[in-house]
Amino acid sequence: MKTDSYMPVKIISGRGCVKENSHIFSRFGKRCLIVTGGASAEKCGALSDCVSALKKEKIEYDIFNKIEPNPKTSTCFAAGVKARETGAEFIVGIGGGSPMDASKAVAIYAACPEICEEDIYLRNVPSKALPVVLIGTTSGTGSEVTGVSVLSISSSGKKKSISGEDCYAKVSFCDYGYTLNIPEDITMSTALDAFAHAAESILADTSNEINLLYAEKAVSLLKDYILSLGSGVLPSEKERETLYTASIFAGLALNVTGTCFPHTLGYYLTEKYNVPHGKACAAFMPELFIRAKKYCPEKLGTVEKILGVSAEELIKIIGKALCFDMKIEEAEAESACASLKGEIKNFIRSPGGFTADDAKGAFMSFCSYFI
């Protein structure tokens, strides 16, 4: 029985948890850099709550609010330079997956002035890093609890992850209240991201007793929303809380196993067609389920049992909700797969294994599942 697991993040949850636990920030120093995107952290109230908590503890702060979707290594590097120049002792990341992932990289750049922009992929692991505190504002990525940061290489636009003990937050504040006014399209994409994390974790060859506890719980919490995809009805406050909780459980699951090939292939749809990450991963769920039915039907059966529908029915539900209209021809598929050689962890842990040739076929056929 395999029960390997590692989880060093302190999770603090509930409405108002940032302001109610302001003393937590003082553990990490007297000055910080807040890393966030454009206006979303301010609009949802998370930035205001964070600033109030810092002021209460007499902690000085600076704000870097230039993190873009799919954060670039150059942007994170610039934030790391600012952290050093301002004397930040820790990093506070506020937002969805992009600002939270970026904050992990910023903490490494800030603590390691010898690392050039793209050298972050070549660093010793674990490397030095400033402490990171995260405040999540969406219900999908699970970055609050994972030792992974997905960045876009500035020179190529390619998405590539870093991981290791230096990529974990020290503390993550999980207040679902910040998600209450998220639009339906973003709600759908982030929920699909969480579902992909949970389903891929269950179906991965690296699955064990620990991740299954987390992943199965996540799928059960996501069930009602996933089965009603595309309804256009915004979740209630209670449902928002459920979606956020599900994303954390899904994050805990993928932290044990890692993800499968839908994440790797999904990066291409995001890079080339600007498809939001969660939807891009969901685009390859049908192919994952087909392979799972062949190579690990008992695991797929677990997902089907929790949801109460067959994989075929679930594919139809996801397909009607997404309605992709692009088509990838053979030449483009070959180009997209050109760099997918060698040992790709997401491929190796996928049901039955996965190759660049399999990826080519998946790129050419994924739209056939969507109406």
Task: Label this structure with key terms.
371 residues, alpha/beta, globular, single chain, 16 helices, 6-stranded parallel sheet
Q: How would you sum up this structure, described in words?
A:
The chain is α/β, with parallel strands linked by helices and 371 residues long. The chain is 49% helix and 11% strand. The protein is built from 16 helices and 8 strands. The strands form 2 sheets. The protein has a 6-stranded parallel sheet with strand order 1-8-5-4-2-3, sandwiched between helices. β6 and β7 (159-163) form a beta hairpin. α7 (209-227) packs antiparallel against α8 and α7 crosses α12 (297-307). The longest helix has 21 residues, at 237-257. The N and C termini lie far apart (42 Å). The mean pLDDT is 95.
Topology of this structure?
Blueprint: E1 10-13, H1 17-20, E2 31-35, H2 40-43, H3 46-56, E3 60-64, H4 73-86, E4 90-95, H5 97-111, E5 132-136, E6 148-152, E7 159-163, E8 171-174, H6 184-203, H7 209-227, H8 237-257, H9 261-273, H10 277-282, H11 285-295, H12 297-307, H13 311-322, H14 330-336, H15 345-348, H16 356-365
Parallel strand pairs: 1-8, 2-3, 2-4, 4-5, 5-8
Antiparallel strand pairs: 6-7
Helix pairs in contact: 4-5, 6-7, 6-8, 7-8, 7-12, 11-12, 14-16
